[in-house]
Amino acid sequence: MKVTLKSIFFNIYAKNLIIAAVLFIILCFAALKWLDDYTQHGDSVEIPDVKGLTVELAEPVFAGRNLVYQVIDSAFHKNFPPGGIIETIPSAGAKVKKGRTIFLRINSKDAQLTSIPDVEGSSQRQALAILHSLGFEKITVGLVPGQFRDLVVGIEIDGRKIQSGEKAPLDIPITLLVSSGLGEPDIIGIINDTVVNTEHGEGENWY
User: Residue 180 — φ and ψ, nearest 5°?
Assistant: First the structure.
């Protein structure tokens, strides 16, 4: 067989083309394998529901699923225990890859301080609505002598009259001072929006 320059060139070109094709196929398989390992394809876990648990109690739950956690924020929420987890990001039930960092919002261990509103001169009903809307729950009404019945004349905490703007914990007992219109001061409690006279055990709805 006669060897020509053209046949030599063709053989070199064909060999290089074959080598390039093989290398391309190998690189494609390698890239797909790396991408599969990097994304942990098919190796996901479900974020557990750890709301209400402390971080210490939730830690083994996360570890058992190969998840990492990080506390990013804290806020006061009366429906959660101090230090309890309020929220996970992503939320519980979501599918994530193993090794993923789960961000946590936890409940503050200290009660939130809120400014006492200016309710002096308001009606008892208006003042209670404002206080409840701010999150104050432990409210007792104290009747004091005064010309106008049902008129709020101030707020007391631990026997001290509080000025509006002062800060107090939401869970602290407060006394709403209300003018009785006549007679001596008396202490009454609020139960389901009903005024209950603690001395005589009588109930009267002021709403």
Answer: -85, -15
Is the separation of the CB atoms in 50 and 105 below 8 Å?
Answer: no
Q: What is the pLDDT of residues 52-93, one digit of tens each?
A: 999 999 999 999 999 999 998 887 777 788 889 999 999 999
The answer to whether residues 115 and 158 touch, using CB atoms and an 8 Å cutoff, is: no
Q: 36 pairs with which residues across the strands?
A: none
- Whether the CB-CB separation of 190 and 139 falls below 8 Å is answered with yes
Pair 101, 117 in one domain: no
Full DSSP string of 27-43: HHHHHHHHHHHHHTTT-
Residue 196 lies in a domain: yes
DSSP reduced 3-state for 61: helix
Domain with 185 in it: 113-204
Q: Is 190 helix (H, G, I), strand (E, B) or coil?
A: strand
Q: Based on the domain organization, do 139 and 198 belong to the same domain?
A: yes
Residue type for 67, please? L
Detail the DSSP E strand segments found in the chain: 44-46, 68-75, 85-89, 95-97, 101-107, 113-115, 139-144, 152-157, 160-162, 167-169, 174-179, 186-191, 194-197, 202-204
Any domain includes 157: yes
Number of structural domains found in the chain: 2
Separation of alpha carbons 173 and 93, rounded Å: 39
